Amino acid sequence: MKMTPMIETFVMHFGEMGSRWGFNRTVGQMYALLVVNEEPLSANDIADALNISRGNVSMGLKELQAWRLVQVQHIPGDRKDYFKSLGSIWDMANKVFEERRKREIEPTMTVLRDTLLASPANAQEVYAQQQLKEIHDLLENFTKWSEELQRLSPENMATLMKLGSGVGKVLDMKDKFLSHN
């Protein structure tokens, strides 16, 4: 399988971005390749397109399946497994965020909760707990907010995102109004 220059540019870039989102560069490239292909691809198709080993593809597909980003499809009369990205782009964003929350935010919240339950031994630990409480509260509010966002339909989420800067202006007007009263 040969990628066009446009698709290759996107796939290579997505691999670099994937490494910042929690999966390695090759897995990011594999996922991008699946996203931009209308038809499902076999492991051999992926290996050929990205010039990587079949073993590397197999491990990457297992990771993408663990993230719930791809699904296996079968083509009648063909014994090979084929792979397709699962769901819409919104679904992908939600799944990546959900996995990152499980892998990064939840363990941090556990450490913060445990630390906040401990009795401080001195003034330095009292101060540290105050700071950690602020971090805990911020992450907890962010998590609750993001869970609410994940429940929105893609249409409502797109509308909310378009309102983004408008919400900031409304909040600024509210602050000005309250300061004048």
Task: Write up what this structure looks like.
The chain has 181 residues and is mainly alpha-helical. It folds into 2 domains: 5-85, Winged helix-like DNA-binding domain superfamily/Winged helix DNA-binding domain (Arc Repressor Mutant, subunit A, Orthogonal Bundle); 89-180, no CATH class. The protein contains 7 helices and 3 strands, in the order H-H-E-H-H-E-E-H-H-H. It has helices at 5-21, 25-36, 43-50, 54-66, 89-117, 123-151, 154-180; strands at residues 41-42, 70-74, 81-85. It has a 3-stranded antiparallel beta sheet. Strand 2 and strand 3 form a beta hairpin. Helix 3 (43-50) crosses helix 4 (54-66). It starts with a helix and ends with a helix. 15% of the residues are buried. The mean pLDDT is 90.
Short description:
The chain has 181 residues and is mainly α. It contains 7 helices and 3 strands; from the N terminus they run H-H-E-H-H-E-E-H-H-H. The protein folds into 2 domains: 5-85, Orthogonal Bundle (Arc Repressor Mutant, subunit A); 89-180, no CATH class.
